[in-house]
Amino acid sequence: MRKRIAIAALGVLVVGLLAFFASQSKQRSVEWHLARYVQLLTERGWTQRLRQTWARLIGRRIVVQTPSERVHQELELHQKTLVKLGCFEERRFLVFNRPSEEVMIRAINLWRETQSNAIVRPQFNTVFVVVGNGRSEMGSLRSIGAKSAGELAQSVIIVTQPQHMPRWADFVQRADSTSPKKWEDIMDVIHKSRFVPVRK
Fold it and tell me: Could you give the C-alpha distances from 31 to 9, 76, 86, 160, in angstroms and in order?
């Protein structure tokens, strides 16, 4: 009798371990990170309050942290993972004619003009962007001042899917242009001279 109980308990343990490892591998997939990334950018504030209420009800310890800090940290985590998995690309563009923050804002405004359902979500020093449910485009922008970077030039760091990077490079160059009338003349300029790798 004891032997049967031990075998049954061992079987339940093995099934539980298999389910755990299957869920872990699913959580490490590109699809899971993308879905969570979009959910964090599009979810309503009430879901965060609901989670906190549920944590209190089940007696889980709540870390004292504002929702925006939690969301920002999780977005950064998913974004870094997606860059490592090759789903996102991270580039840094030097800007010379305007402050980097102004270039970033102008580039976002140029992007918004091309989208009908864009969501722009500032989070501390980063601005996250997503189109609708995230199936078409998502990513983030961050401006780096020359003094904070310890460099001669300011820059804008962009993270997005590789197929959207050329368009963002164009937005940054247009936003940094001193003469809006000449924007059309610089549309075909390849940004190799302005692109520098992001420091790891």
Answer: 34, 16, 12, 15
Q: Convert the pLDDT of each residue in 110-160 to its tens digit.
A: 999 988 888 888 888 899 998 876 677 899 999 988 666 556 678 999 999
CA distances from 186 to 82, 106, 174 (A): 31, 16, 8
Are both 78 and 141 inside the same structural domain? no
Same domain, yes or no, for 93 and 187?
Answer: yes
Q: Are residues 93 and 191 in the same domain?
A: yes
State the residue range of the domain holding 121: 89-196
Identity of the residue numbered 182: K
Instruction: Give the C-alpha separation, 37 to 138, whole Å.
Output: 9
C-alpha torsion sign, points 23, 27, 30, 33: positive
One domain, residues 177 and 141: yes
